[in-house]
Write a structure and sequence with these properties.
The structure holds two protein chains of two kinds. Chain A is α+β, with helices and mostly antiparallel strands. Chain A contains nine helices and 17 strands. Chain A folds into two domains: 219 residues, PmbA/TldD superfamily (PmbA/TldD fold, 2-Layer Sandwich), CATH 3.30.2290; 213 residues, no CATH class. Chain A has a six-stranded antiparallel β-sheet with strand order 3-2-1-4-5-6. The mean pLDDT of chain A is 95. In chain B, strands 2, 3, 4, 5, 6, 7 and 8 form a seven-stranded mixed β-sheet that branches. Chain B has a five-stranded mixed beta barrel with strand order 9-16-17-19-23. In chain B, helix 4 runs parallel beside helix 5. By secondary structure, chain B is an alpha+beta fold. Chain B has two domains: 260 residues, PmbA/TldD fold (2-Layer Sandwich); 232 residues, no CATH class. Classes of the chains: A alpha+beta, B alpha+beta. Strand 2 of chain A pairs parallel with strand 4 of chain B.
Chain lengths: 438, 508
């Protein structure tokens, strides 16, 4: 679908919904194309291509609210869908806070190109993609007797969206990414450790295309024959690749919806210290080539850079229009874009070096966090560290704590932000974590 | 973008945390009453037998061995309550056809979001390219595989209007608020979906299914002296509108009150290895994570599961029998046919302590030269089927619940869970405990909550030392995730004792 075709459908749906009795309407239309190739034992194991469309519709009818989605865009069916949706909404209860955002908060256009879309990806030769995936496997195929299985994979995706509201917003966005990865299983004395390595980029030309198989194998072999260590309190270093897992519940607690649902341990903490002063997080939507970059959020609100945590002090929540009205708090944005951290001086090796005896966490296994209280407990794997040396892999252990106190134990932040996502987490060092093991 | 083979399960819909906005109001926009025959389903999708054969023959034009077509039309609704009012609703329509081509164990896959010949043939050619020769294929006559009826729908969700659902939601809200003065917030979501499935393959099988799925879920918040506790309760079935009843509302309200209020007394236990007693019911999460995923034959075919060399071997005590069952009537994990047109069955995975079967889809069954077990499942038409669990439970054993508790000197008893995960290769699995008790000298003492438990699959299975005679299936809204695909499942367990697992908690 072209952008103008999408706008045409959006206009049609909005007009029809208003005609059926809606007071306000928002419509998003997206289409995407993706491809995936998996190689195993030097053969194509799976080849998949997808092209899909979707429409989502938000309705405000006599102060009543509903939302809908469909991928069935045949015109006659779509109009019937809209009619049914408007009619059904009338049976709901009124909610005085449900109406579109004030139009002066919308993005007005004219922003710089955020470089989120590589148009060359759509035209790539499938043979080249297959060759890249093959090469990732070939780097290590047959190179070590302990290898049980290698799966390498190339994948890419391009998508484009338009968003239109009945009170004057009209905007479009697009995005792409390409990725290359290898996943390796090896046979050990006690199990079959598995690990992977993947490279991802928005632009195909930025994608690192070699060394992926080798890195995956190296990471996997390091995990052979893990041991548990004794339960106790140890310093914990968390790898930048998985640091986002521990950050997730902290960010969830900053949402207006979480606070309104009494599911946030950060409620009422604005301008107070919630973490060690080493923690500095900025929400930066306008970074060129950022995985979370955008000119406007899911409600069409103009994107702005905001301090979230400054020297450990909570500066801003993520407040969308609806929950802002309900909480009587000024709206910011409905959710994070790129979370950028103030980095420290040391690289990962430097952080490990500073630990006399501790645990380097490189993976999480299950677990959860109680959003209301901040109590958390997660399964972990990683390495026992002594004076910067990895002594042996550890697995089958848990960490437990409370998010309110945990972030105050942040002792150092690395200089190595995560490259493959919108949370740019560096490696971090925490004092005194409760581990359960032997 | 994470390729790690980590399988997980979670309780509740996709949007458990934060807002509980979910669907409830649209009926099938096709508007055609489908008659329960292959012809009725072909009419629904506006295709003819000749067209299906043409698409299949295009899918096989490059010389693959097998092709199948999976048509899906799913209509979902959710109706939600917040602040004591039913004030939001969501609905979704998913429509399309997935075209899969197999050459040995290689897969080519594409899909179309409409059923025009142009779109279907384009997708078929893409999927066909997994093979590289030229061949012609003669279509066999279609043989209709009539599905069973494991879901007896009294009244179809498509015939129910939103105003008939609302009273059950408000009644549940009122009962929870009336049940305890400390209740400050209740969020409720009622979800229903109806799927029309039409399946056919190059072996000439044509089958179809009409699948209802519904759940009702409530999150309750209580506050006392500045402390906030919350708990989630739900029930889910493959049933029609008759799912909603005063009994259901009573049951959920009672559970909501008791599960939330007891948390005020609970704390974290001491960290370390200890004996763990799993209560009857949702403790079936143990089977799902510790062994179920590791028995899925795709992992074993690739040799990456820790159970890959254990077939036919004794892996547990004689009194341990574990099954994966797709035939429990009305169950969330039940299916008349799986998503590869294979009738489901009750599959014994571990019989009297011996590993007897993996969980198979067509590809793995062919690889192992066994009959498919009806476990080939997919999230929707956009995804390929892979081996997945249905309802996984353990049969009753020789011990008594009280006898098991009494046998523990120092350990914990766990009975409510939110999620779990497994790492297939090493076999390490976890589950998150929302509630349980410390056991001291054969008695339940201090309540505990919010801790993760971790163990190793083969070890934990071998360490099951007692199994009671009180097997219970849990009717919670469990969704199992694998390779980015979520499918509904259920689980069950009698009271079971495990010699040793690692329990999260505090260190003195």
């Amino acid at each position: 679908m072209t952008t103008s075709e999408k706008y045409e459908i959006a206009d049609l749906v909005i007009k029809h919904a208003l005609k059926c009795g809606a007071d306000e309407v928002a419509v998003a239309i997206s289409d995407s194309a993706s491809s995936q190739i998996e190689i195993r034992e030097q053969k194509i194991d799976k080849l998949q291509e997808s092209i899909s469309n979707g429409l989502s519709l938000t309705l405000y009818v006599q102060k009543k609210y509903s939302s809908h989605s469909t991928n069935h865009l045949k015109k006659a069916d779509l109009l019937k869908f809209v009619e049914g949706a408007v009619a059904a909404t009338k049976y709901l209860s009124e909610d005085e806070f449900r109406y579109l955002p004030e139009a002066d908060r919308y993005y007005k256009g004219g922003g710089e190109d955020l470089q989120t879309m590589d148009n060359s990806i759509a035209g790539l030769d499938p043979k080249q993609k297959i060759e890249l995936a093959r090469q990732a496997e070939n780097e290590i195929f047959g190179s070590d007797d302990r290898i049980i299985s290698i799966t390498s994979s190339y994948f890419d995706s391009v998508s484009s969206d338009v968003f239109v509201t009945s009170n004057g917003f009209k905007g479009e966005s697009d995005g792409s990414f390409a990725g290359l990865s290898a996943s390796v299983s090896v046979k050990g004395a006690t199990g079959r450790p598995q690990d992977y390595w993947g490279e991802y980029a928005i632009y195909f030309n930025d994608l690192i295309k070699s060394g992926i198989g080798k890195k995956a194998l190296e990471r996997t072999l390091k995990k052979l024959d893990p041991k548990k260590i004794a339960s106790g309190k140890y310093p914990m270093i968390v790898d930048n690749l998985v640091m986002g897992n521990l950050l997730g519940p902290f960010i969830s607690a900053l949402y207006g919806s979480s606070m309104y649902q009494k599911n946030s341990f950060l409620t009422g903490k604005a301008d107070t210290k919630v973490a060690s002063e080493k923690l500095n997080i900025t929400d930066d939507p306008l970074r060129p080539k950022g995985f979370g970059s955008r000119h406007f959020d899911a409600e069409g609100i103009n994107a702005e850079q905001r301090a979230i945590i400054e020297n450990g002090v909570l500066k801003n929540y993520f407040i969308g229009t609806y929950y802002g009205r309900k909480l009587k708090l000024p709206p910011t944005t409905i959710g994070p874009s790129n979370l950028v951290f103030k980095t420290g001086d040391k690289d990962q090796a430097g952080l490990l070096q500073s630990v006399k005896k501790g645990v380097f966490v490189t993976g999480f296994n299950g677990g959860n966090c109680n959003g209301a209280t901040g109590d958390f407990s997660y399964g972990i794997e990683g390495f026992l560290v002594e004076n910067g040396n990895l002594i042996h892999p550890v697995s089958e252990m848990n960490i437990s704590g409370n998010m309110n106190t945990f972030w105050n134990t942040l002792a150092e932040v690395g200089n190595d932000p995560y490259r493959f996502g919108s949370f740019l987490t560096p490696t971090m060092l925490f004092d005194n974590m409760d581990f359960s093991g032997l | 973008m994470n390729l790690k083979r980590r399988e997980f399960i979670r309780l509740g819909g996709i949007t458990v945390a934060g807002s509980m906005v979910i669907p409830s109001l649209i009926t099938s926009c096709k508007g055609i009453p489908v008659s329960d025959t292959a012809a009725g389903y072909m009419d629904h999708f506006e295709v003819t037998p000749e067209q299906l054969q043409k698409v299949l023959s295009t899918a096989l034009e490059k010389g693959a061995d097998y092709a199948d077509l999976y048509f899906e039309h799913t209509v979902s609704n959710a109706t939600s309550l917040q602040d004591k009012k039913v004030n939001s609703a969501y609905s979704d329509i998913t429509f399309g056809v997935g075209i899969r081509v197999l050459k040995g164990d290689q897969t080519g896959f594409a899909y179309a979001e409409n059923t025009s010949m142009d779109s279907m043939l384009r997708a078929a050619r893409t999927a066909a390219s997994i093979a590289e020769s030229n061949s012609s294929w003669t279509a066999p006559a279609f043989l209709e595989l009539m599905p069973r009826t494991l879901y007896n729908v009294g009244s179809s969700w498509e015939d129910v209007v939103i105003k008939d659902k609302i009273p059950f939601i408000t009644s549940l809200n009122d009962k929870i608020f009336a049940g305890d003065k400390r209740v400050t917030k209740v969020n409720i979501s009622l979800s229903d979906s109806t799927s029309y499935i039409l399946f056919c393959n190059s072996e000439g099988i044509v089958s179809w299914d009409y699948r209802p799925l519904t759940y009702m879920m409530a999150r309750t918040v209580m506050e006392e002296n500045g402390r906030i506790e919350n708990a989630m309760v739900s029930e889910s079935f493959r049933k029609g509108f008759e799912f909603l009843s005063d009994d259901l509302v009573e049951r959920l309200a009672g559970d909501a009150i008791s599960k939330t209020s007891r948390l005020f007394l609970a704390d974290k236990p001491k960290a370390g290895e200890m004996e763990v007693v799993m209560a009857a019911g949702s403790s079936g999460i143990l089977l799902h994570e510790a062994m179920g995923h590791s028995f899925e034959a795709d992992f074993n075919r690739k040799n990456t599961s820790i159970f890959s060399d254990k077939m036919g071997k004794k892996i547990a005590e004689d009194f341990v029998t574990v099954v994966d069952d797709g035939t429990l009537p009305g169950d969330r994990g039940a299916l008349n046919i799986d998503d590869e047109g294979v009738a489901t069955e009750k599959t014994v995975l571990v019989g009297n302590g011996v590993l007897t079967s993996y969980i198979h889809d067509r590809i793995s069954a062919k690889f192992y030269n066994v009959k498919p077990t009806g476990n080939g499942r997919r999230q929707d038409f956009r995804n390929v089927p892979i081996p997945r669990m249905r309802s996984t439970y353990m049969e009753n054993g020789p011990h008594k619940h009280d006898e098991i508790i009494a046998s523990v000197r120092k350990g914990i008893y766990v009975e409510d869970f939110s999620n779990g995960q497994v790492n297939i290769g090493p076999g390490d699995f976890t589950f998150f405990v929302k509630f349980g008790y410390v056991i001291e000298n054969g008695k339940l003492t201090k309540p505990i909550k919010d801790i993760n438990i971790i163990g190793n699959g083969p070890q934990a299975l071998a360490d099951i030392t007692m199994v009671a005679d009180n097997m219970k299936i849990d009717y919670g809204t469990w969704t199992c995730g694998k390779d980015g695909q979520g499918v509904p499942v259920s689980m069950g367990l009698p009271t079971v004792k495990i010699k040793k697992l690692t329990v999260g908690g505090v260190n003195a």
